[in-house]
Each structure stands twice: as C-alpha cells, then as structure tokens.
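One thing: mind reviewing this one?
=====
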Amino acid sequence: MSKLLMGKKLSDGSEVRFYKEKSGSYKFIVEGEYGGRENSGYSSLTVAIRFFKAEFRDTSNEPLTTAEQHIIDQFNDWDGNLQEMGSI
C-alpha cells in the first residue's frame, strides 16, 4: 500500500502525485489525456522530485544556447540549395 504525500494539476492539464510506498521507497505517477505513467523505486522524495523535474520540465521557452543560436543563424543564412548544405 502506498501513502499519498502530495499532488498537483500541471499546466498541460495532466496531474502528478507523489507517494511513499510500504517498502520506504518513493514513486510518482503522472496521469494525463493519454493515460498514466508510473515512476518508482526512488530512495527519497527529493530524488523522486529531481527525476520528475528532469523528465517533465518544459524547456521550450528557455533562452537558446549559443550553439543553438549559431545553428539557427547558419540555417537562416543558407539559400535553400540542397546541393550546398555544407554550412548547416
């Protein structure tokens, strides 16, 4: 049996819940429009949260890295000639 510790509805409409299991390990379940996903076996609640953040964090609005911006600039400077794609 698992004990519910906390839960939250997420900005994408899904829901996450964190549990402490009878064995003393921790798990989290993310349920959304397309079903659920369980991640278990974490040694602490902190570790479970760290894995949740790494797996589900939306990074699409974060600033571009220098390398990403360089690739985008090269692509935008390219004339579209499929025979000459060396610069991208």
